[in-house]
Design a protein that fits this description.
With about 280 residues, the protein is of the alpha/beta class. It has two domains: about 190 residues, Alpha/Beta hydrolase fold, catalytic domain (Rossmann fold); about 60 residues, no CATH class. The chain has twelve helices and eight strands. An eight-stranded mixed beta sheet has the order 1-2-4-3-5-6-7-8, with helices on both faces. α1 packs across α12, α2 packs across α3 and α4 packs antiparallel against α5. The longest helix is centred in the first third of the chain and has 15 residues. The two termini are about 20 Å apart.
């Protein structure tokens, strides 16, 4: 009989620059790290972590600017995130990593530098090819944040980076939709992360067309996508990644969208990840 996982334990490490990075641990078995996406934190992956916890010791990283971890800092970059992930991996000994969206980009960049990562599962990683991950929303987004108009900033981001259906919405309508969809603690968390979201996506743009670097990844890689995602950058990124990664495979979840791991299908994603990691 498989034991029911207990509540996560919160632990901390210090990144090389001295910043505190917390992570949530649950379960027993081989160690696996979860790297959350932008506008998310460790608590958004509770269902995914719990589903994996029957077979793995799961460590969900609370990335910079999230509760329990330090700020991004003035010198923030993707290298900062990689150093944070490496610090948690050193503390846990984990050789398996799961990354979602921007967290998938962090995981890929870390795996370039760290051959100790044996297996990498990535759900729609934020890899930009030929400028297909839009960045033209950032100037207006920054202005709205400076003006104290966070929902207009959020709407600008959702329209600028979302699927075609989202891009057809006027900003006032998208802002109204987001106000209805995000309430209470979830709203407070997202609004708190809007500034960090800007800095994180600037790194996505900076790394546009850097995918040839992933020839350096020695880990076996599982690339996952939602069949209902509709994000224009995903298919071209997967095409390029499967060309350059030394060892990769692709899995599509027909009924899921970009939010499969955190909201729409964590149990389904966990099952696929577990099979890959243990094969």
């Amino acid at each position: 009989m498989i034991a029911t996982p207990t509540a996560p334990t919160v632990r901390t490490v210090h990144s090389p620059d001295g910043t505190t990075i917390s992570y949530h641990t649950i379960g027993t078995g081989p160690d696996i790290l979860i790297v959350p996406s932008a506008l998310n934190d460790a608590t958004d992956y509770t269902a995914l972590a719990t589903a994996l916890a029957a077979r793995f010791t799961v460590h969900t990283i609370q990335r910079r600017a999230r509760t329990g971890s330090g700020p991004q800092g003035p010198d923030y970059s993707i290298a900062t995130e990689c150093a944070d992930l490496a610090a948690v991996r050193a503390a846990t000994g984990a050789r398996y990593v799961f990354g979602h969206s921007y967290g998938g980009l962090v995981a890929l960049e870390t795996a370039r530098r760290d051959p100790g990562i044996a297996k990498l599962a990535l759900y729609e990683p934020g890899v930009s090819v030929h400028g297909l991950f839009p960045m033209d929303w950032t100037a207006q987004y920054r202005r709205f944040l400076a003006q104290g108009r966070p929902f207009d900033a959020f709407a600008t981001f959702a329209i600028g980076t979302g699927p075609a259906a989202a891009r057809r919405n006027p900003r006032w309508l998208m802002s109204a939709i987001l106000r209805l969809a995000f309430r209470g603690e979830r709203r407070a968390k997202v609004l708190q992360l809007l500034e960090a979201n800007l800095h994180e996506h600037k790194q996505v743009g900076r790394l546009d067309d850097s995918y040839p670097n992933y020839r350096e990844v020695s880990a076996d890689v599982l690339l996952m996508a939602g069949g209902k995602s509709g994000l224009p950058h995903v298919a071209p990124a997967f095409d390029r990644l499967t060309e350059v990664l030394p060892s990769s495979q692709v899995h599509t979840f027909p009924k899921l969208d970009h939010f499969g791991p955190d909201h729409k299908g964590p149990a389904e994603v966990a099952g696929t990840v577990a099979t890959f990691m243990l094969s």
